[in-house]
Amino acid sequence: MPIHRIRLRGFWEVTPLGDGRTRHVRRFGKPRTLDPGETAWVVGDAGPAVVFLNGEEVGRAEAGPFAFEVTARLQTRNELAIEGALGEVALEIRG
Questions:
Q1: CA–CA distance, 90 with 92 (Å, rounded to integer)
Q2: Residues 93/40, Cβ–Cβ less than 8 Å
Q3: Alpha-carbon gap, residue 72 to 1, rounded angstroms
Q4: How far is CA 7 from the centre of its chain?
Q5: Cα three-residue angle 37-42-47, rounded to 5 degrees
Q6: What is the DSSP code string of 20-76?
Q7: Would you state the CATH architecture of domain 3-94?
Q8: Cα-based distances in Å from 31 to 70, 75, 95
Q9: By the 8 A CB rule, do 79 and 56 touch?
Q10: Cys-Cys crosslink for 17: which of 21, 65, 68, 93, Cβ 3.0 to 4.6 Å?
Q11: What sign has the CA pseudo-torsion 38, 72, 14, 48?
């Protein structure tokens, strides 16, 4: 089935954490109602990094690509935070 990819580009708030790491925060709206059988994933390239959605840790990434399923955690408005190195990040809707 096709994958719909929404790149999370644009403004990321960056805050130094004081231990050589940084926290990158990006807010976004829920893209649409998911059809039965569809799932939402935060995917990207980062690391090492810890990934949070709406204040809850969703996973830890070593250097390289990551993918974390977040369907049940999506709200109308969302806050994605990545503590550590940041590359390209997207929200994928998979069917």
A1: 6
A2: yes
A3: 20
A4: 10
A5: 150
A6: S-EEEEEEEE--SPPPTT-EEEEEEEEEEEEEEETTEEEEEE-SEEEEEE-GGG--S
A7: Sandwich (2.60)
A8: 13, 10, 14
A9: no
A10: 21
A11: negative
Residues 6+ apart with CB under 8 A from 20: none
Distance from C-alpha of 60 to C-alpha of 64, rounded to nearest angstrom: 11
- Provide the pLDDT for residue 38: 93
In the numeric block, the tokens 């990006």 are attached to 26
pLDDT tens string 23-78 = 999 999 988 878 889 999 999 998 799 999 999 999 999 988 999 999 999 999 99
Closest residue by Cα to residue 93 from 48, 19, 10, 36: 36
Distance CA 79, CA 30 (A): 10
Please, are residues 74 and 68 in contact by the beta-carbon 8 Å criterion? no
Rounded distance, CA 25 to CA 81, Å? Answer: 4
Count of alpha carbons within 13 Å of 70, Cβ hemisphere only?
27
